[in-house]
Amino acid sequence: MTAASIVPVNKTSHIAIASFIGTAIEFYDFYVYAIAAALVIGPVFFPSASPTAQTLNAFATFGIAFVARPVGSFLFGHFGDRFGRKSTLVATLLMRKRRAAPSFLIPLGGRAGRSPALGALTMGVCTTLIGLLPGYDRIGELAPWLLVILRIGQGLGLGGEWGGAALLATENAPKHRRGLFGMFPQLGPSIGFLVANGLFLLLGLLLSHEQFMAWGWRIPFLLSAVLVLIGLYARLKLTETPLFKAAENKPARVPLTELLSGHLKPLILGSLAIVVCYALFYISAVFVLSYGISALHLPKPTLQAWLMLAIVCMAVATVLSAWASDALGRRAVLVASAGAAVLWGFALAPLLGSATTTGVGIFLCGALFLMGMTYAPLGAMLPEIFPTSVRYTGSGAAYNLGGILGASLAPYVAQVLVAHGGLSWVGVYISVAAVISLLAVLGLGETRRRDLGQTESVSIS
Hints:
Blueprint (H helix, E strand, L loop, with lengths): L11 H28 L1 H5 L5 H33 L1 H9 L29 H10 L3 H4 L2 H29 L7 H29 L2 H6 L4 H4 L1 H13 L5 H6 L7 H8 L1 H10 L1 H20 L5 H29 L1 H15 L3 H6 L3 H28 L6 H18 L1 H11 L2 H22 L17
């Protein structure tokens, strides 16, 4: 059965809303922590002896979740490739304890079996618990350890989210519009971050510094509980993707094993292709924000306003590049945007070195515009390089493995680089990440005309 012969069973509006809202909520949770890491996590959860050590420790806890994300993609990818996209997507928002391997999927649209008890760990639960977690001044060394555990839980939840959302969009899409459909989950991070940053900005304007540090920063974390319920409702309205239905009689027995034995090259190249996206985003949203406030002493509300404008630029670029990737090809758009990112890395030192909000803001807008240009085509490209039997596992793993290199240590490394070598080395970090992704995209070749209905190995040029 070819992708072109498949008739979508979900309405386009349902596909758009469900794939968009899930990633928006999950990334809202993740970005709430990213902003908090730049603003409050260090002083609240670590000893006050050294402000530099507080900042480095905050960035280290930020990076831990990226290590957990590939584990989440392998875990949820296994069930997504064996038992269905819809069931697993719902489970990324709401995980259940299980007595048998797939039984936690049953109440959420999976196969027959016993219904297990409702249990812990969701992305939203972990985020909410961070908002309730006492700081170092109240429980001492226990505070950072509990924070690390909750960050790992966040990483596991987000690790299973993106692959399922991307497949929900692309496996329901007409062949000539996969870039456009793949745009829906890629817009989620823009909106999630816009809401997260907007909340922090509003709290910063309404509360005094003392109120914000004491309890105000916890409010965005606590709101996650409500948002997860909204996402769950949207996804329960979906049916399974037609491509999975067409191939469900021949699923991989162990998708991870099949992926590593038969599709290692696209997994590696796909992971490297997305490195530049992570580097651009997290250098901008975490390091630059922190550097502007702590080192340049620029007004926090003004920098946050610039960051929100930069996110709007990212959203606009996401829409433009999704359209262009259908019209011109994934590779053409990605090569051009990665090449531009190589050059933009050299703009970091002079723009931040100006020590003005305008200079910092211009860098943020340019970096996140390029991030959107590289990010959107990958929403279609990563699913296109894997066959149906391992597509959930493969695309999710590639997406999240790229985060280890591009994002997990990016704010931490940037902080070390600026301390020992200066701002120019942080720009070099971005440029090197862009070169890595550019070479990977060239290795993957063009993918927009590939048949997603295939079940055999995908040829990589």
